[in-house]
Amino acid sequence: MEIYNTEEQQVEAIKRFFREHGLSMAAGILIGLGGLYGFREYQAAQLEAQEAQSAAYAALVDKAAAEGTDKKAWLTDAQKFIAEHKDSSYSHLTALMAAKEAVVLKDYATAEQQLEAVAKGSKVPEVIAVAQLRLARVQAEQAKYKEALATLGATMPAAFAAQQNELKGDVLLKTGDEAAALSAYKAAQAGAEAGKNPLLDVKLNELAHVAG
């Protein structure tokens, strides 16, 4: 390969390349360079947008945790953020937060709406699972046991199996089906880390009479 040691030689090499390969090749190179610079500008714009989104999300988190925050007003701000950044990871995290705040206000309809949106819109299995588990709790809180069990029937990552089965047991117990609840609790116990869930042991002990 020929090596050019000076700027003058490089310029001459470029001129010679243009003469040998014609203007069409030169135009292609210029278009390619334009695309490269355009892509870099696009990347810079994307990074700037992500940083702004991250800052706005952090501000919402801080405001939610601040003492004396008007939760209804915060929910309005959160919904605006979600609408502006639809389908982004930050919008899904904000929706999870909004659902939690809505439950505190006993606004279960809003909580369900937010959680359903995350469960349907997120592409992250773990985020979907968290939304589904919380949605099932909200549904059970409203005595929507059939809906809660349907929500818990969804496939979730293995790491959530114990929580999924325990919550299923809680819902089944509320319906009066102790045998099915016991079965769900046993499945939860089989998937849980030993000694990590003493509350589950209590639930199993309370249903000891069913096994007999």
CATH architectural label of the domain at 9-156: Alpha Horseshoe
CATH topology of the domain at 9-156: Serine Threonine Protein Phosphatase 5, Tetratricopeptide repeat
Q: Number of helical runs?
A: 10
According to DSSP, the number of beta strands is 0
CATH class of the domain at 9-156: Mainly Alpha
In terms of structural class, how would the helical and strand content be classed?
mainly alpha
> For the CA atoms, what is the radius of gyration?
28 Å
> Beta-strand percentage?
under 5%
Query: Which parts are unreliable, with pLDDT below 50 for 5 consecutive residues or more?
Result: 1-12, 17-24
Sheet having the most strands = none
Overall body shape? elongated
Describe this structure in words.
The chain has a domain at 9-156: Serine Threonine Protein Phosphatase 5, Tetratricopeptide repeat. It is an all-alpha fold and 212 residues long. Helix 1 runs parallel beside helix 3 (89-104), helix 3 runs antiparallel to helix 4 and helix 7 runs antiparallel to helix 8 (178-191). It has ten helices and no strands.
What characteristics describe this protein?
212 residues; 80% helix; elongated
Give a quick summary of the entry:
With 212 residues, the chain is mainly alpha-helical.
